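Input set for joint prediction.
Command: fold jointly, output tokens.
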Amino acid sequence: MTDDTLAAVLARIPYVAHLGVRAELAGDEMTAILPYSEHLIGNPLLPALHGGVIGGFMELTAVIQLAIVQPDVIDRPSRMAKPIDVSVEYLRSGKPVTTFARASVNKVGRRIANVHVNAWQEARGAPIASLRGHFLMSGGE
Amino acid sequence: MLLQVPYREDLIGEPDTGVLAGGVITTLLDTTCGWAVALELQEMTSIATLDLRIDYMRAARPRETLQAQAECYKLGRSIAFVRGLAYETDPADPVAAAQGTFIVSSPAKPRGAGEVAGGASRTTEGAAEGGGERDRRVG
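tokens >
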């Protein structure tokens, strides 16, 4: 998959535009980027990013990474992986700066994929949240 | 605690079908669970999501308002345990279920005397009686 194809896939998903998510590829490894925007704030007093936004962003990262693994979804976005369950661990408060996320696909079976995602801001070694989840692969149906 | 998110086209995750993005449901359940904890507190204090698990039972029906209810079934000194459901109209036919833990900045003061005995649950629905300012570190 090229950066252009990836951008085309993302452009079809309204929620990607709502959050303002971009993605960059290095080989088959994708970094999802969530630039800071005021509408992503959950606590205006600190301020801090909304926990649900961070969770949703990591979930998108997992789905996009799975699309890279299974490129037949490019022409049919409805065949993108669907979440079955996700578990989000919040480690640090999300500051009002750019957030990054990378997914590692631990296993893709015929129907189920297991994915872990880490999200970080200033330092990758200091993640702000992580997600692990199972996703239903619809490409084989 | 009951919150609603009206259907909006910019929240779609599946353009072919118009189904809402999973992240929207995550955000709705995180917010509702957080408020369920806030309503159990005697005074507004800092609440942060520690862990949130979501099970997606089915896709949300396009063009329908989604709502979520949550209850804080155990409020400890520093940790609150919450569960929630997201659905369009019928809680018995849920779109997703959530189970979460939240950090409550000490000192947490549960309503009534001492800790909630035997994990007795309390469901708070409707308007935010403890509303007003709310300080949540994460979502």
